[in-house]
Design a protein that fits this description.
single chain, mainly alpha, two-stranded antiparallel sheet, 18 helices, 2 strands, about 0% strand, globular
Length: about 450
Amino acid sequence: MEIHGGKMNPGILQKARVMFYMVTPNETQFEHTSDVPEYVQQATPLFVGMVLLEFFLSWAKNGKISVRINDGITSLSAGVMSRLLDVFVRSLEIYFYIYVWDKFRLCELPWDSAWTWWLSFVGVDFGYYWVHRMSHEVNILWSAHQAHHSSEDYNLTTALRQSLMQKWFSWIFYLPMALFIPPSVFAVHIQFNLLYQFWIHTEYINKLGPLELILNTPSHHRVHHGRNPYCIDTNYGGTLIIWDRIFGTFAAESDKVMYGLTHPINTFEPFAVQFQHLLYIWNTFWSAPGFYNKLSILFKGPGWGPGKPRLGLPEEIPKITGEEKPYDPGMTGFLQIYAVVHFILMLDIYEDMFVVENTLSELALLFRIFYILLTLTALGFFMDQRASAPFLEAIRCSIFLILHNFDLLKPFTDPVGYAVQMFFFVSAALWGMEGIARVISWKTKQQ
């Protein structure tokens, strides 16, 4: 383990073991929160490598990759959006945890004790169970979490389809631990718990024998992501499945699982993925009669309605035939390649922003965030086959050229920089002409 910038930098083997929680207390104990490695940020190469491995396995088994380009980009886009505000505000969970620790702790368990490490492991997973369960059973919290469930596919990119809003309330459920467990120990396990859940988002691992009794596994989590009636509101555990067995929310995988929301959102536009249910709550709230009904819309289950039980009626869950087809407006091979190339270029700017954030002004950071969001939206318009997509793409490519000219994006050195600028210039020109051609065609049809 090396030290960079005052923080420990785990070796590659430890980084790989962290993904499966296969670490010991001795190698992951730190006295100060500032010493705790950024395990999640450092896992990016492993995310990419495991996704590519899943591609290879699916190609070898089925002759095609397991990820649809439009759905995969949408999942990755949600992951990108969920981290953008981190350049301004670091983990709220850690911030509020430290505040409670400093002001209200009842006792101070030793940070270098194996007992403290294991207690934190159990405590974080127990807290996550209730964060997760409430995010399904409380409508206003579901409006944040539903983004993660909106994919109708199930693969490792789905794990990265994270909510933009969930971090703003999840910290509450961990605060009791701050009364006695040091923040540095909590900061380790809150990352490990999240990383463990990455690899279980796959269909290429079957049941794992006796481990199924204790651990959350790909089989258990497939059920959690299902929209079959038997899958709804089950298997909330993060690392452990024992909480579901104790509290009666466990369901074993049986019938073929159909993934996604019970009422699919049918869009790849990233803001719609994040906020469509919140907009639905807003409209329903104002149309509901009476104060009690309005509060119930917020704090009862997503399926609640007047005269119904708190979580709604099970018989109203749409039946599954097994023949359901995922939303897919279709993309030409050219558009798929184009979208992937532009997404990779955006991802390079995104990753560079986190590397050099301390050297950038707030205005420069805002310009980068604006460009990233504009790129994700434009790609979403393409994947939804919206008529306005060419116009938005022409505008986006033009804005890139302007921001790049004023050194407000990642600088690309020549000859790469020249090639990138030419690529964006040609893209802006072609999509601008395509948009004009569509307008002329539309006006001709109207005559």
